[in-house]
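Next comes the chain:
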Amino acid sequence: MGIMNRLAGQTPNADDSSTRAPLINVSRRGFLQTTGGLALGICFGPVACTSEKAAVSAADVAPFVPNAFLRIGADNSVTVIAKFLEMGQGTFTGLATLAAEELDADWAQVSVEGAPADAKKYANSLLGGQGTGGSTAMADAHLQMRTAGASARAMLVAAAAEQWKVPAGEITVTKGVIRHAASRKEASFGQFAESAAKQPVPAAEAIKLKEPKDFTLIGSTATPRKDSKAKTDGTAIFTQDIKLDGMLVAVLAHAPKWGATIKSVDETAARAVAGVIDVIRVDAVPGTTRAAVAVLAKNTWVAKQGRDALVIEWDESAAFTKGSDDIFKEFKTLTGKPGTVAATRGDAAAALKKPAKAVEAVYEFPYLSHAPMEPLNCVVDLKADSCTIWNGEQFHTIDQMVAAGVVGLKPEQVTIKQVYAGGSFGRRASSKSDFIVEATSLAKAARAKGVEAPIKMVWMREDDMRGGYYRPAFVHAIKAGLDRDGKLTGWQSRLAGQSIAKGTPLEQFMVHNGVDHTSVEGVSDTRYAIDNLQVELHTVDYPLPVLWWRSVGHTHSAYAMETMIDELAHAAGKDPVAFRRTLLEKQPRHLKVLELAAEKSGWGTPLAEIAGKKRGRGIAVHESFNTYVAEVAEVSIDEDGVLKVDRVVCAVDCGLAINPDVIKAQMEGGIGYGLAAILKSEITFDKGAVVQGNFGEYTPLRINEMPVIEVHIVASAEKPTGVGEPGTPVVGPAVANAVYAAVGKRIRKLPFGDQLSA
């Protein structure tokens, strides 16, 4: 049993509905449990649908279990039900591609709906409950969705064969049209939807999936994204678009420091704002949410005006009060001492006693905000015996359980309706369900005061930026040694930072022997052939909540590992690619992307000169989430130390490439996201208060700063893996290594800022 199922304690059974359109399963039937199941619904027109029927055509076919991944209507529509959140990463398109490929549907007839929270139907087998994260969507669903499509196709063909009285083997399906060539008969899916639902479910051994040579959609660049049109014409539904009868909007004033409490509130000016309905105090949930005061109004603008008019005195006697300098001083002191052993090979201490050449470095990585374009928000409609939540939902099972606990209901009484999310980068997969806790706590407190309307909780950008749950800050202290031949003989890494899992419901599953794997991943499990390696961890307990950020621990471990490897290559007098090649000689997939990136970038050839600028080329290779990525960065630096990343060449091996355009887009987006983090973004603290509040201080990458990016996908028949995160951690060290090649300076403290002009 996986993490989320264990946390839930029971399997929730939410109402089978979607925010964009009702999920109606008609003629419910039993489908193959071993393949995740399939619901083939028959809908006669856009509104009127048949009632449920118990149609069993064979004694050994189980009654219908609601594992719905497809719905085919009499109007010839094919609807894919996506159990994963679409937050910009192309999941809806990938899932639809897998199902439509085996169904032989016309891509134009396929649409996608987000599934509600229901772990019985929609569990992610790699996470253990329903949820999106860890770049697991395609890895988890590729066989499930293909089997769903193949099963539906077989039933449609069987229905046609029965009606046309011809052998099923003589029937073909192409682009949503069922044909029998000899009799010249053909029909659409919709014409056989009702009769197909009465067919027996194909036995598992009878379901034959296509060979890669027969793919028409998988691997094709002619499959436009299913969410693009709606996001372009404004019909896509995000949480902010939800409007319910009588709904109120809440904007909150949060405690400026974690651990602060409400000492007093003067509501007079806030209540004087025309349109303000009420003012609600929301107490902190220790370790999860901050104390807050919410203003309820009929629209966001009025609620914000009311919030800004509040006069609040905070009690900060128990608040977090450290500044950034204090934090890093503590981390650096800790890395000078032995820590909890996270990984060990051979005898690193002995190997590092008297190496022919020793290299040492200390790296500093700041806290980082997820900063999605859509700040956190949530709609809650709380009633006496039910709670309905509209949200760009990433952790369905955990959030459903937690919300139920807050409002005093059973998990099955909580319905979560999934809508699009405007980015997340890990923020909506909160390990403590913090914004769900806040929204439901607010709804509960409002109801206790007699306010029974649905409430939309809206965070402003500053609430989001200062809301905690950051990528944790870390310090890495590395010692490495080379022998006389330039061979890497020993490596010691000591890390200090906060654990993402410690103090959360996930601690018992993610922390082993005092080590949170997400703190050391990418270092403790490095694939480099280092015979003598020791990785030690110091976990610091602060009340400041931290969370996984796009590519989690790899965001800092890849930078430390790959810049140190580069430094060792230069110390050994070897080419950085050749040095890595030797250390990865038993890692064919690493080598493949390393060689491909080097080849496509022109590694070893001179860079074109740019007047008044120094130029450099750097490389990095890293595996995360079972995906292998190598990147070569080309940079130019002017006389004032102004850095420009000119070009990034990326090679990626993510197994079977389901949607090449989506893969390229995710690599490009991950590279841009990673560049902002290394060049200029950071969250800093002044006596416990977050300094940055908006994009003026927490600077994203501007469009004119985006380099030319080339993405090369390794052809592979391996199982598909994720691409949402693995492009991010590699670009930082590639750029840092290029900077060294250009001007001979190592950047060990992020972000780069103005270090090159110093």
Remarks:
- The chain has 20 helices and 28 strands.
